[in-house]
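Inverse folding, one chain.
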């Protein structure tokens, strides 16, 4: 394909061939945005969400597949927690190169490739998942599912460049929330498979997703665009590592997204181990696992919209207070062996981890916009400062996404260790409570507390 998209007649000379490239992109220009930019951005957002959604579903497959691994497979709970932790680990690592890939290959081009890479874990599962398979083989196959986690970073980096600052919280929230919906959707698909063909046919899961992967790749090829300005992102991650706010945001994202994806992967298995008498068959656990991730996904755009209105730091602070309270509820429910209270506590955690995702990600462009305003006040070129802010925001989105996803690994390992040593999840719940308290204290100290040099509008 050699067609090139140029939104205006005054677009810069074309620099690339071999795809749909846009060289002139000015979302902060109201005339440009209202006449041309909005429709292009919306079209790219729609198919970015679709591809990311399927990526999340593939990434989350093992949170459902472990419910199919009954006595015929011979794996204990500790082994099953490893099967859910490893895809999280690989997905977190892949988010760094996936962020670079948008700048190297273009958002549209990389979305096509990233979608097709999802065929690797799904086909591998279809080939090997049956009684008698070795645990080592399943560990290796579970690693492949990590490619689904990388999609988030490239998708968010790409969409960040399409939208003006005033709409970034909403757009990033929609993009991420639509992607996050892949977690409850795959769990509902698993519930459907368990209820119809039964626990002996786990490979029916991937039979559903393989054609959807092909459709996502085709849709991206036919409808999406590449932005030339994204190709200027080389070295951006190295630049943002020099800002201390980068590491603060990454810490906060461990608490929000790390919690969301970690709980989403582990919750079904936690129910089976924590309340074994109430879940004699996997179908009963599967019937409850999807609600929390669904609510957390749906509310994520609300977190972004609230952050657009009230500032991301304020929303994030109160969000972590609520998550700490949710961890207290879960701990009390565990000690009282109360399943209804346990479910209420985890719904609180899922909802506020989702809302916090949107709020924390809104803080990223706000930080670099504030830094750009400071530099322009010192006499720097306003256009160049805005370009650097967008480039660095995209880089931090990828970096924070990678570090935050690693929090999902820590959640699964915390559960695994707590059940091994205490025979319950209480140790993990206490650890979550302490971490959320650290997060709201750090948010207040860095972004809210009145002090000299505090960034405005974050």
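Residues assigned per position:
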């Amino acid at each position: 394909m050699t067609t090139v998209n140029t939104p205006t007649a005054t677009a810069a000379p074309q620099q690339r061939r071999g795809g749909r490239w846009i060289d002139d992109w000015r979302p902060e220009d109201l005339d440009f945005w209202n006449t041309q930019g909005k429709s292009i951005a919306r079209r790219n957002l729609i198919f970015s969400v679709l591809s990311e959604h399927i990526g999340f579903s593939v990434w989350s497959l093992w949170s459902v597949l472990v419910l199919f691994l009954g006595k015929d497979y011979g794996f204990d709970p500790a082994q099953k927690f490893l099967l859910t932790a490893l895809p999280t680990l690989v997905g977190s690592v892949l988010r760094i190169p996936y962020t670079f890939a948008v700048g190297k290959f273009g958002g549209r081009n990389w979305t096509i490739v990233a979608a097709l890479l999802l065929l690797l874990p799904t086909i591998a599962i279809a080939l090997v998942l049956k009684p008698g398979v070795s645990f080592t083989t399943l560990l290796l196959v579970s690693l492949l599912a990590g490619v689904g986690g990388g999609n988030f970073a490239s998708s968010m980096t790409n969409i960040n460049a399409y939208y003006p600052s005033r709409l970034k919280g909403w757009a990033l929230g929609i993009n991420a929330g639509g992607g996050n919906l892949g977690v409850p959707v795959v769990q509902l698909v698993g519930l459907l498979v368990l209820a119809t063909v039964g626990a002996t046919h786990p490979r029916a899961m991937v039979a559903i997703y393989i054609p959807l992967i092909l459709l996502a790749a085709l849709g991206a090829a036919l409808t999406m665009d590449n932005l030339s300005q994204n190709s200027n992102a080389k070295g951006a991650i190295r630049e943002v590592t020099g800002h201390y706010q980068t590491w603060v945001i990454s810490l906060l994202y461990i608490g929000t997204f790390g919690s969301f994806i970690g709980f989403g992967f582990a919750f079904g298995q936690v129910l089976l181990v924590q309340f074994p008498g109430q879940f004699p068959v996997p179908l009963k656990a599967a019937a409850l696992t999807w609600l929390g991730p669904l609510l957390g996904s749906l509310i994520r755009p609300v977190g972004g919209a609230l952050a657009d209105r009230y500032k991301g730091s304020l929303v994030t602070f109160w969000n972590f207070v609520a998550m700490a309270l949710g961890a207290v509820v879960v701990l009390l429910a565990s000690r009282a062996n109360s399943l209804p209270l346990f479910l209420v506590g985890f719904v609180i955690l899922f909802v506020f981890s989702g809302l916090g995702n949107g709020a924390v990600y809104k803080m990223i462009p706000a930080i670099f916009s504030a830094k750009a305003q400071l530099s322009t006040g010192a006499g720097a070129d306003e256009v160049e400062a805005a370009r650097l802010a967008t480039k660095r925001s995209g880089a931090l989105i990828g970096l924070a996404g990678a570090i935050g996803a690693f929090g999902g690994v820590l959640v699964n390992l915390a559960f695994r260790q707590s059940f091994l040593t205490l025979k319950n999840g209480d140790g993990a719940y206490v650890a979550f409570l302490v971490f959320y308290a650290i997060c709201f204290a750090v948010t207040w100290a860095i972004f809210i507390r009145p002090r000299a040099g505090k960034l405005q509008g974050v």
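The first strand starts at residue 21 and ends at 22. The longest helix spans residues 382-421.
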